[in-house]
Amino acid sequence: MPPRIVAIANQKGGVGKTTTALSLAAALALAGKRVLVMDLDPHACASAHVGIFPEAVAATSAEVFRADSPGTVPWQRVLVRPDRANFDLAPSHAGLADMDWDLRDRKGKGVLLKEALASGPAYDHVLLDCPPHTGVVLVNALVAADLCLIPIQTDFLALHGVRNLFETMRALNAVLPRPIAYRALATMFDRRARACLRVLALLREKFVGRMFETVIALDTKFREASAAGRVVQDVAPDCRGAREYAALCREVLSL
Known about the structure:
41% of the residues lie in helices and 16% in strands. Helix 8 links the parallel strand 5 and strand 6. Helix 6 packs across helix 7. The longest helix is centred in the middle third of the chain and has 15 residues.
């Protein structure tokens, strides 16, 4: 059975995209699922978060796009298991930022990732931590995905990145055989802040039927986990953040 592919995307930084990719991956693994996180952001935040750096690995997720064919992707060199993690990682590389130029003459360049994952190692879930800018890597992630999970910070300025992402998705939907499925996830929520409450209400109004019930609140344990090079479930398994990502995991599995 092919893996379920979830693209975690928002064209605005600082909305909890990487935290969601890693925390959801850990929650899915704790639920007994085989999970791969692909860091497709050239800034490599997910890779650095778990202590994996491009100069210390044999290959990176960039090799998926550079391979001559899906069958020649060197997965055995690309995949690593971060210390103390219960999921695999395909690390990022700064060269992902050059893929628009590198693949300019490549036929079928929009489906490279989809085809590579279809013939790749066996996983139950593959989570794609997407780049924040429009380009061939983001297009590959959206085309490959069974679901686009959109983390949205409960702040008015965060809505602009969503608008840009939807423009990209609309352009792809015009040529894809089926529309890209998506669900929004409210993040960085502070129930004490009136502005957060207003934005959450606005999101629930605009994303009727397309929004997770789970809301990810602010939790200092996320910062502690990042500083330790670990996921929040390792640092504080009973904290609010860990419980909320467990709830999100249950929602994802129920879709």
